[in-house]
């Protein structure tokens, strides 16, 4: 941002904060606010430091205050807030989307969420008045842009927030790229690291997560196509993850299984269609809520009437695995989720892997939790959400 733009940016924020109406007074007071006052420009932490230029997924270069002290995050995957926790900067979190506020798992690993204000979302509507009142230094926005209509909706949100004088860093959901790849998910981590000046920590985290993925690919990379397990990736309440999704990429390129679903991201499925696909195994992802496999084996109605699917091969042979409300996403817990899927798909190749022990060790290592905290966070993955079971 050039010097004129910086003064204009600070002036806008000061005028809104104190309600000045004359240009002369606003110029004098706005200049003072940029120099050190924190009432008009959030914390003012970056007043003496040059802004940081961030290249985001919206193909823009965004000028972000150095060392932001008041941060709003509106996201789905959870990579931003989780990275903030791991980087040790989650105390700057002042506002989150309403869905994040409800998620017990994220609150278990990121206690700062408890004090953050729920601000709605692009889908339900953002409370701009509340957001402005928080005086954030920066807003992170994860955008789901599966269509031009989605993109236009998010652009409107971006424009409204930036009209408040707050920079917005936009990160696109990993399933919305032309070719889904885990690299685009990890960019959520690296860009968050750039905003907070935590590039080294971001590099270490990405390396740690890739090492977890390598635990799987090292055992599955040589499986011939003809021997790959056919898997349905069911997402509550009535979808399978199509070949356009990041979940399909992880299933095929990392686990080495075959996705029985066709093209698309969230593909609506019926009982008849799922029975016709007749997969060897099935992943049950907690999209709308965690669905325990015992409920499927018991023939309960949860999205689908599972009693009508009792003859499906994966159910008859009891080859199901349930993933928690958060871990099925492209997120920090992805390596553990893929280990669970790989053991389901290829039990002989992963017979020596103790999933319970691996999961506890992962949470302790990555999040710095003790054993009791790790177990509580893992249990919190079983958030039922909006899922109704009859």
What does this structure look like?
The chain has 3 domains: 1-41, no CATH class; 49-197, Rossmann fold (3-Layer(aba) Sandwich), CATH 3.40.50; 221-380, Nitrogenase molybdenum iron protein domain (Rossmann fold), CATH 3.40.50.1980. The chain is 43% helix and 15% strand. The chain contains 16 helices and 17 strands. The chain has helices at 3-18, 23-35, 79-87, 98-102, 104-109, 128-134, 148-163, 182-196, 199-220, 246-254, 271-277, 293-297, 313-316, 334-345, 355-367, 371-380, and strands at residues 52-55, 61-64, 71-74, 93-96, 117-118, 120-121, 125-126, 138-143, 168-172, 230-235, 239-241, 258-259, 266-268, 281-285, 301-302, 304-305, 320-323. Strands 10, 11, 12, 13, 14 and 17 form a 6-stranded mixed sheet that branches. Helix 1 crosses helix 2 and helix 15 (355-367) crosses helix 16. It is globular, with a radius of gyration of 23 Å. The termini are far apart. The relative contact order is 0.10.
Examine the secondary-structure arrangement and name the CATH architecture of the largest domain: 3-Layer(aba) Sandwich
CATH class of the largest domain: Alpha Beta
How much beta, percentage-wise?
15-25%
Regions with little confidence, pLDDT below 50 for 5+ residues: 1-46
Total individual domains: 3
Largest sheet: 6 strands, mixed
Number of beta-strand segments:
17
Q: Treating each run of at least 4 consecutive H or I residues as one helix, how many helices?
A: 16
CATH topology of the largest domain: Rossmann fold
Query: How much is the average pLDDT?
Result: 89
Bin the helical content.
40-55%
Q: For this entry, what is the oligomeric state of its chains?
A: single chain
**Given the helix and strand composition, which structural class is it?**
alpha/beta
Please identify which CATH superfamily of the largest domain we are dealing with: Nitrogenase molybdenum iron protein domain
Alpha carbon gyration radius: 23 Å
Shape: globular
Q: Kindly report how far apart the N and C termini lie.
A: 56 Å
